[in-house]
Amino acid sequence: MFNDPTFWKHIGYEVIGGQLELGKLVTLQRSAERTPTYFSELLSPEDSIKYQSFESKQNEAEWVANDIQDSINNKELEPSDILVVFPKAYTLGSDSAFLMSELRKRNINCHVVGKNTSRDIVFVEDSIAITHIHRAKGNEAPLVYAMAANYSNSGLELGKKRNALFTAITRAKAWVRITGVGHEMDELSQEITKVFEHQFQLGFKYPTSEELAQLSTAYKDKTDGEKQDIYEGFNQIKKLKAMFESGELSIEDIPEELRPLFG
Predict the structure, then answer these.
(1) Statement to judge: residues 194 and 256 lie in one domain
(2) Which of 63, 104, 107, 169 matches a 20 to 30 Å C-alpha distance to 224?
(3) Would you state the pLDDT for residue 165?
(4) How many Cβ atoms sit within 10 Å of the Cβ of residue 19?
(5) 196 and 230 in one domain?
(6) Is residue 194 located within the same domain as residue 76?
(7) Which residues form the UvrD-like helicase C-terminal domain (predicted)?
(8) What CATH number did the domain enclosing 86 receive?
(9) In this predicted model, which residue has the larger pLDDT, 98 or 245?
(10) β 13-18/25-30 pair status
(11) How does pLDDT run across 130-178, given as a tens digit for each residue?
């Protein structure tokens, strides 16, 4: 959340209800002046934005490959009009392997930016570009797939992860497809459904200065040491839960304030 409420106007939103002030209720929507005219003339929200949750990465890859094939065959898109974005650089190889296999089964060329091509070249003629969020910045395509979006709804530093998903989505000039796996993606899909239900209007109570300070502390980037402490704490909880479930610990052995964690 921006410390200066007026920043919402700088990034293209307008007030349609309430007051854009600290501690006040406000409703925002995207300004028509900041939206290309062809969006309303040629596209519908339902066609422009699609999202889907899957049980496995394989299922996700099959759906995306089928959708890409349909877009090439029926929407007159070229492979070079399509960009696939994954959230993490260090797992891009393994994450993209499922999709690359499915695309090749359909005789659709693809490349991992920086691996099969130069780092400076994102789009290649007759090939689907696949990359991670950091390399996607500064590049746009008519059709973008934000895959593994479930990553933005789990673990630490959710603010940073949500910003990465936002960046992926905003690479799209016309169509975006948001996909992921598991219950984290199910929850994210529910959020997106609510956005549709509210006709893309954002209604909320703007935090006070004190609440903004609390949010800043809660969502600040963690140091490596802080992350290590947190993960060690999680592992200890998992170990204790396993001992409780196996009968090595009874509920009486657990401090009263921690008992809700054990059912």
Answers:
(1) no
(2) 169
(3) 94
(4) 12
(5) no
(6) yes
(7) 129-178
(8) 3.40.50.300
(9) 98
(10) antiparallel
(11) 999 988 888 999 999 999 999 999 887 788 898 899 999 999 999 999 9
